[in-house]
Structure prediction request, 417 residues.
Amino acid sequence: MAKRRANGEGTITKRADGRYQAAAYVYRPDGTRTRKFVYGRTRDDVADKLTEMQEKTRQGIPAASSTMAFGDYLTYWLAVIAPERLKPSTLNSYEGLTRLYIRPALGKKKLNRLTPADVRRFLTEFKTACLCCLRGADRERPEDKRSCCAVGRCCKRRPSARTVQYIHAVLRSALQQAMREELIARNVARIVETPTVAPKEVRPLNAAESRLLLKTARTHRLYALWLLLVSTGLRRGEALALTWSDVDFTNGQLRVRRNVQRIRRELIFGTPKTTRSIRTVPLSRQCVRALTQHREQQERERKIAGKKWQPTPEQPDGLIFTTATGRVTDPRSLNRMLNILCRDAHVHRVRVHDLRHTCASLLLAHGVDARTIMETLGHSTITMTLDTYAHVMDTTLRAAADRMDHALGPDDNEEVL
Prediction:
């Protein structure tokens, strides 16, 4: 005869369909307790699930239920599950999107009552709605809780294609976890296709504008950084996290192995999001010279700063692009610097990320193949490279057609002049 489990240890029973079920009291996200059931094909499977569930209860971690409000489930998912699986920057963006857009629209729906129609309607309305109205407050009058449209001053700011994709990704990820925990039978967000949104056209600098920008940046203390961004297409966080040990001056190359991002009020160093982003990038002779000069300049700044040269404890040793006191450069400050450089160079205003697009466009224009560009930029797939820069490949495609004419020779019907 099986030993009876003590009070509080939960129960395990065999169902009529042959599966096993276990039940125990767990915490809800609101702090109250409820009885939760888990299921499995064998007694050992159920026992393992029960142990995990009870361990969370002992730690005060809430458990989800199928009848809870979707907004409460998102709170649980972001607090308990997502931090173990997402990068800090991704988690931060997911939390913001949930708080600003998803919870106000779908938060009151029951988790097990959420339908594909609910998700489809939300995404369709979201991509065409005014951002201020979605957030439920007027940006110009934060004390007024009415939306800008409600007071007759629509700001006409619409979500970007990337934001719509992120919103859909949050819904898919959260509901997929609910499926794993057997709270719902299907992931309704996977059933719904992401609404098509016309992406904003990338408008990088051309070759002449790039030369003007770099000429203007010659006197800037971070000239080597601007040259590096245009020449190698590094991401902003990747460039600012480089250390001198990452640069091989002899062979003219650098290794990308970390990044830095602002998460709320902190600058966090971490690894790139994908394995493709960890890469070795060749450097032009100009970049090697600029980095050599920058190292000498940094040594002069260190001597001038003296005791004021105080790197933060969190940053790695030997950062290349620091402030005048040796601290990590805030990624947000680069956009302000670049705005001033664009103004002084009399070129159209671009973001720091647009310099990455500029690098790819210049490489394409000079006949570099897409595979090489993918490796240089650290894209996860070549499809991403081709899709992102399809609009600037016309020159390359035209050159390919001209080379075919040269390979096949003149047409018999073509008049020879």
Observations:
- The two ends are 103 Å apart (CA to CA).
- The longest helix spans residues 285-305.
